[in-house]
Design brief:
The structure is a homodimer of 252-residue chains.
Chain A lengths: L3 H9 L3 H7 L1 E5 L1 H8 L5 E6 L1 H6 L7 E4 L2 H4 L11 E6 L13 E5 L5 H13 L4 E4 L9 H6 L8 E4 L2 H6 L6 E10 L9 E5 L8 H4 L4 E4 L11 H15 L8
Parallel strand pairs in A: 2-3, 5-6, 5-9, 6-7, 8-9, 8-10
Antiparallel strand pairs in A: 1-4, 2-4
Chain lengths: 252, 252
C-alpha cells in the first residue's frame, strides 16, 4: 500500500537539499531500474507494477510496494508510461583511484543536467570509468541526469571537488583541453591515459584551469557554427582519443 | 506599445498548428536574433529592449515594438533574461539541390527537439548545408529547436518529406547508416559526399530505410553503454567523415 508519506518522501528527492539530507536518489523507468538492480548500488525502495515485478528479481533488502501504472504517474519527475520507480542510496564519496593508463573526464561547470547525463553515457560507451566535476556542475543524482545516462550512472563514478586543488595535486600525466586555437584532434597522439577537461557550455574552460592544460586540442570546423554543444564535443574527443588518434594504432 | 493581441499572436506560435497557419516562427534571445537579422529570413516583427535596439540594426520592413525586459518575460518559451524576441516568416519549401560532392543528413524520426537542434548545430559546424527529415521528426521551427541550434538554423536547410520516396528516388551515391554490426567508422573511406541516415532515438534506423543503406558503419565501443545519444552519434560520424576517415587525406 502506497502511503502519502511515502509519496511525499519520493517527491522530496526531486530537490537536491533533500537528496543530500536523505542520501537517497530516484531512478525512473524499467531500463534504468534494471541497470540499478544489476549494480552495486544499495536499493532501498521499489515502487513496482505487477508486470515489472513478475519479470525482474527485486532485492530482498529493499522495501517493495506494488503499485499500478496510474499510481506511479506523477510520483516520478517524468510523465512517461512507467512500470517502476526505485530509490537508492547515494554512495559515500571515495577518492578516485586513477590508473596511469586511464582516461578521466574533468567537468568544469557543466550546468545542464541533460548535457551531464549524455556526457556520462558517452563516458560509459568509451570505457571511461571516472569523471571529476566542479561543485557547480549539475547534480549527478537528479532524476534528469540519471534518466539521461540511460543506465550508465551505474558504471561511471563521479567525484565533485574543487578542480584547481585537484589539478594542482596531479603529479604528472597529460591534461587535454579543447580550445579554438588548439591542435587538430586528428593529429594528436593521445597515448593511453590522461585528463580531458570539458569546459562550461557558455564560457568554455576557465582561465583558472587553462593553466594546467598540457595539450590544447581542437575539433576541426568546416562550417560556420561558433561552437559545438559540450556533450557533442566530449563524444567526438572521446571517439578520436580511443580510436582515431595517431597513437591508437588500430587504424585499418 | 505591446498590445494583448500581439502577445497572443506571438504565444500562439508556440503551437505547430498556428505556426503552419501563420507561416511564422519565433526566435528568442540576442544571439539567435542577431543571426536571424544577418540571414536571408524575412523578419516580420521584433520585440526589442532599448538596449538591444541601440546596438543592432533592425530591418526596415519589420514591425518593431520597444519593450522592457520585464514585458518580454513570459512571452517567449524560455524564461531567460532576454533582450529581444523576433518573429520571422517560414520560407516556402523548395526541393533541395544536392551536389555530388556534398554530405547530407537524413533524419529518420528524430523526435526530441533538443536532439534535432544540436544535430543542426553539428551539421553547421561540419559544413553540412542540407538535412532531409521524415514528417515524424520534431518541428524545426519550434522555439526549442531554434534555440538549441544556437543560430545555426540560418545556415542549414531542412526538408521534410517521405524518406522512402526520397531515398528511392536517388539515382546513385553512397548511403551511410550506423548499425552495431557495421564497419568501424575509422576504417571507412567516406569519400567526398553521400547521405548519412540518423536513426530514431529508440529504435535506430527503420527497416524500411535500412534497405537503402550501401555502407553500414559503427562507432567503436570500449565500455558498456548500450547506445549513444542520436545527436552525439551524429557529431562523431560527421567529425570522422570530414577529418578522420581514411579518404579525408588531411592527416598530419
Amino acid at each position: 500500500m502506497l502511503s502519502k508519506a511515502k509519496i511525499k518522501f519520493v517527491k522530496s528527492l526531486q530537490i537536491k537539499k533533500y537528496r543530500k539530507q536523505e542520501q537517497c536518489f530516484v531512478v525512473e523507468g524499467a531500463k534504468s531500474v534494471q541497470e540499478l538492480l544489476n549494480s552495486d548500488f544499495d536499493t532501498v525502495l521499489v515502487l513496482t507494477t505487477k508486470d515489472f515485478q513478475s519479470h525482474n528479481k527485486l532485492p530482498a533488502s529493499a522495501e517493495v510496494i506494488e503499485v499500478t501504472a496510474r499510481e506511479l504517474e506523477g510520483i516520478g519527475e517524468f510523465q512517461s508510461n512507467d512500470s517502476v520507480l526505485a530509490v537508492a542510496r547515494i554512495p559515500d564519496p571515495v577518492d578516485p583511484a586513477i590508473g596511469k593508463d586511464e582516461f578521466v573526464l574533468v567537468l568544469d561547470d557543466i550546468r545542464d543536467p541533460g548535457n551531464l547525463g549524455t556526457i556520462i553515457r558517452a563516458a560509459d560507451w568509451f570505457g571511461i570509468k571516472t569523471v571529476i566535476a566542479s561543485p557547480e556542475t549539475a547534480d549527478f543524482y537528479s532524476s534528469k541526469v540519471i534518466t539521461a545516462t540511460m543506465g550508465s550512472f551505474t558504471r561511471v563514478g563521479i567525484f565533485y571537488t574543487d578542480l584547481s586543488v585537484y589539478m594542482g595535486g596531479l603529479q604528472d600525466g597529460r591534461i587535454f583541453g579543447a580550445f579554438l586555437d588548439g591542435k587538430n584532434i586528428h593529429h594528436v597522439n593521445f597515448g593511453t591515459g590522461g585528463h580531458v577537461i570539458i569546459g562550461n557550455e557558455s564560457r568554455g574552460i576557465s582561465a583558472d584551469l587553462t593553466r594546467f592544460v598540457t595539450d590544447k586540442i581542437t575539433i576541426p570546423r568546416f562550417g560556420k557554427a561558433e561552437s559545438l554543444n559540450a556533450a557533442m564535443a566530449t563524444a567526438i574527443i572521446c571517439d578520436v582519443m580511443r580510436s582515431g588518434g595517431l597513437g591508437a594504432g588500430n587504424r585499418g
